[in-house]
Amino acid sequence: MTEEQPPSPIGARSYDELSQRLRQALAWAGLSHRELHRRVRRLRTARGTADLPAYNTVYRCLLPGRKRLDVELVVDIAAVLLGMDVAAEWRQAHRVITGDAIEAAVISVADHLPGGTGRFVGRQAQLRQVLEAEPEDAGVWAISGMAGVGKTRFAAEVARLLAERDRFADVRLVVNLRGFDADLPAADPAAVLEGFLRRLGASGGEIGCLTLADRSALFRRLLDGLRALILLDNAASADQVLPLLPALPTCLVLVTSRRRLAELTDARHVALDVFTPEESVELLRDGIGDERVDAERGEAADIVELVGRLPLALALVTRRLAASDEWTMADHRDRLADLRTMLRLDDGVEVALRTSYDELTEPDRILLGLLATYPGRDFDDHAAAALAGVEVGVVRRQLGDLVAANMVTARASRFELHDLVRVFAEKRVRESVQARVRRTAVGRLLDFQLATTRTALVTCYPHEAERWEDLPTPAARALVFDGADEAMAWLDAERVNLVVASGWALSEGRDEHVTRLACVMTSYFEARVHVSDALALFGNAVRVASGVTRGHVLNGLAMTHWQRGNAADSLAVLQDAIKEFDAAGESDYVLNLSGNVGLLLAGLGDYRAALPCFRRALEFAVARNNESFRARQLCNIGVAEMRLGNHSAAVDHLSQALDATRASGDRLCECRTLDGLGTTFRRMGNDTEAWACYEQALDVARQTHNRADEGKVLNHLGVLLVTAGRFDEALTHHRQAIDLAKEIGSREGALAASTDLAATLLAAGRAAEAVRCLQQAIDSANAADSRYELARAQSGLADALFAVGDPVAARKHWQTAHAAFTEMGVPEAASSMASPLPST
Predict the structure, then answer these.
(1) In 146-274, at which residue ranges do the beta strands (DSSP E only) sit?
(2) Less crowded by CB within 10 Å, the N or C end of the chain?
(3) pLDDT, tens digit, for every residue of 710-753?
(4) What does the alpha-carbon distance between residue 532 and residue 366 come to, in Å, rounded to a whole number?
């Protein structure tokens, strides 16, 4: 140290003088310029700030001749050299020089609580969190949230309710710190303390000669022993707030800020999000009345979503609605939709977001704008890094800044933008960043997504690696996954984004991305289904694919229709795929697809016609030495033989399939083979072997995240539990299977499980419930193409109607089912003849 007292910025009247004080502080601390630069970077890294200054930037800050100085850099240099507690006075000195000081010192301090307009809506859980704290549990509550989320209104309501309960009633101090004011600078903490001290009885002469630290000390002395409630609204930073905290056990401080003030380490934090849909409608009702909202419920719901359930935006719309009966809710809905299309916002929302946006560093603004153009709803840090073209460590620090500023919302390991922030930021990035730069950024993201999708699917299904080895993949750096669970978790999290990105790529003419993504996602949709997403992805690709690639895409689309239960549609699409391969001279692919033709014929209940298709595909697999494909055809033949009642042939083919699938590592086929063996053994009356196969199949399905087959196995286990008289367990299994099938969009899976659920209800003596269940199942079956499942539902309904005493209606359904079973040539045709129904 070169001086006994550390240098102070007080009295500096120019940038040169402020730089001189920083040079004195450098000498006082005994650091070199290089060490100062390292420590500033270390301080910002620890704080999670993405903007790390270069050496020359720090060095020039200490040189004379500066026409401007970055206040944040000045504060960080002072903090490194002199300690974190000096930040406020260095920030204030900078304000004096830039001319903000006079306005920053003009402060209005109130001794009464602010009044709210209208009834307070929502936030009940957060109110309880604050109000149910013990009376002596004072301290600081830091209330944060994005612009317009209702922080001030919430804090005022907390204060009002505390006043009703006569808590902290001796002193009340309220001040707007103007941290994000559009027209005025943030309030000077020294000026705020002067206002507080005057309210507490101190004279101007007593206060005028006191430093900031002295004013804080006097503030604490005057409040000691008093029950005080202090509301610090709209804080810019922790530096602005810290001198204003009395740190006394009898004082409660409510701080609101658009930033999460993590530096207030002793504070308890309340983060406010947008309203729920119910709270949003309640706010509309409070403003314009129940009758008007009830008359236009749909339009009200549209308005709520168009403003993203942001309280400020809702309040603005409500005031517009209340001000004029000529504008209906439909009119306002259309106005808001038009604004969104034009990337415009209501003026009040625009101003609120702009003041938050202006506080960001330039790199953070650019990242926010690029994220606004991102074709998806949420994203992780790796996607953001690909979009921005920076290392993931850099983007993590930037995302931390944006989250702290409440411009981006963090949900677990993923992030998202509020709809209105997206509109605001997209408009600005379109104004400030060239279109080609934006397209390049999204192109980087698409390449990253495609490369990582392929890596994830090969991780989950190694036997599929050869399938797409000739398909070009972008040179983008893909994520590396630690096993199949991690890879599948990424695919599940990104599924919707990948579909949306496919649509964006289609609109931008990036046809190769659209078709390649559809091809590599085939295995994912085979296991996880998600019919609607699969139809969208393959539908996009069909529009631009040609030749062999179009054949592959059509095959994926056909199998999606089959999973949905539309076997007839699927067969037509598959025939188109075969034509594409024929035209391209790819006879191997035609033979390959004969197995899928067999699956579709089996879905239509024509097992006899399906068997030759499976056998042709088997011959092709043997000739090409493709063990995985061979296993699948053996499994298909075994299941078809089982359906036709040829149990010995079924066991033989399924056993061969099990050996082949385990040799090839095709675990999707292993699950289906075990399930087929279980059902065959059950039909043969060997329940012990059936149970063992089903349990193994369920384990494999869960290990491979195969939700479609998991539901089927659960349902089959339920059927087996019925034979043991364990009806409640059986019903639970059936219902789990139905829920899974509905979630992934498998109509046939839901139908099969519903029919078996009804059979279990009937066996448990709940015939009336079984009738209702089967009637619903038949309605669903009539919309599907599964003759086999429809016939089972008809047969089950006949049994249930007979049990409830309606033999006439039962006979009609039994005859329909018997005719269908007979036409399909399945064993159920013979067993249905033993029905207890009376003859006509």
Answers:
(1) 171-176, 228-235, 251-257, 268-271
(2) C
(3) 999 999 999 999 999 999 999 999 999 999 988 888 888 888 89
(4) 34
